[in-house]
């Protein structure tokens, strides 16, 4: 199983290359800022432009968070940093014996949950059932 996962890491693992650019608050569309402020009043935020979407990076309850919004202000996904021990047992079983550098829970707008684990410098995505997703 470890060997199979190792091969999967090589084939499907991707290094996150962020093409996001920091943007000033003035350049963020008002609908995006309004939606964020409604969801998180008074929270300090840093904005980045990622493709055509806006990503809000912020800290909430001591955890790093980010939310991705469309230009019209629709929330597309939420990412929350978690401890590796908070990954589902099915995901942890697939990564047994591997060092997990970072873990994230991603919730899509439709409610789908994806878990991200950084292993050996690669970000691996798993569905809620612990299945490794293709990049």
Automatic annotation (TrEMBL):
SUPFAM superfamilies per UniProt: BT0923-like
Gene3D superfamilies the UniProt entry points to: 3.10.450.360
Taxonomic superkingdom: Bacteria
Keyword Signal: yes
Signal peptide region: 1-20
Protein keywords: Signal
Protein name stated in the entry: Beta-lactamase-inhibitor-like PepSY-like domain-containing protein
